[in-house]
Amino acid sequence: MTDLILDRERMPLHVAVIMDGNGRWAKKKGLPRLAGHNAGMKAMKKIVDHSDKLGIKYLTVYAFSTENWKRSLAEVTGIFKLLVTYVNSDLKELVENNVRVKVLGDYSSLPADAVRSLERTLKETENNTGLQFNIALNYGGRDEIRRAVEAIGEKIRRGDMEPGDVTEEAIGEELFTGRLHDGFSPDPELIIRTSGEMRLSNFLLWQGAYSELVFSDVLWPDFTPEEYERAIAEYQSRDRRFGGR
Ligand code: IPE
Ligand code: IPE
Ligand code: MG
């Protein structure tokens, strides 16, 4: 492992990853897209383990977007089946490794067996105190902000809040990553996207306001702990100014 190049004093607290390129990975190998998603799950598992080893406190992965429903039924149901397999087969290990799993997004519209597996995982890991592993599922940044606006509108309607109370903090609290929610996490210092695409695709639009973006050309199933460390090293080389001079 190349982790000697990392500055342990400057590790990001929260890393978010857009796991992209499963389809292209499969195509390159002449395999069905689902084989790519399966390989992607394996890559994800290694990154979860490695985040814990690096002392990262929060890892958020973009697993399924609100726009991914546009894909074929076979691909969508296949992705959720793989997810069920992953959480069921890894639950024991996640518990042993003290990982706390959270979901960002409204997962209630997923297939019933996926909802069941996720709920079991959330419940069995809820008291763990190690890495918080957020899985963004049926997640969209705009959907998340829309829900926050609706919740705030409802509070104002009930008279529990004044329009003047709508601060950035108040909006942040209503997001899936907000203090009022189960997935509470600080804003990610670093967002990594694989597969060479350079866009956010509706990921963490609010929370990513000042995140450093690192793009890797590697397709997600080929993304290794070494690549991950390279991305973190790139983050550590950046000069974060937050609008200051
Ligand atoms: C990312 O890989 C996984 C999901 C979006 C679920 P893709 O399936 O988007 O792979 P490409 O972009 O088609 O290669
Ligand atoms: C973003 O990837 C969503 C996930 C990785 C889950 P997409 O492959 O859906 O994004 P676009 O369509 O290339 O923007
Ligand atoms: Mg893609």
UniProtKB/TrEMBL annotation:
The protein's Enzyme Commission number: 2.5.1.-
GO cellular component, one term: cytosol
MF GO annotations: ditrans,polycis-undecaprenyl-diphosphate synthase [(2E,6E)-farnesyl-diphosphate specific] activity; magnesium ion binding; manganese ion binding
Positions bound to substrate: 21-25, 33, 37, 65-67, 69, 71, 193, 199-201
Swiss-Prot/TrEMBL cofactor(s): Mg(2+)
NCBIfam families, A to Z: PRK14830.1 (NF011405), uppS (TIGR00055)
Family the entry assigns: Belongs to the UPP synthase family.
Protein name as catalogued: Isoprenyl transferase
Organism of provenance: Candidatus Allocopromorpha excrementigallinarum
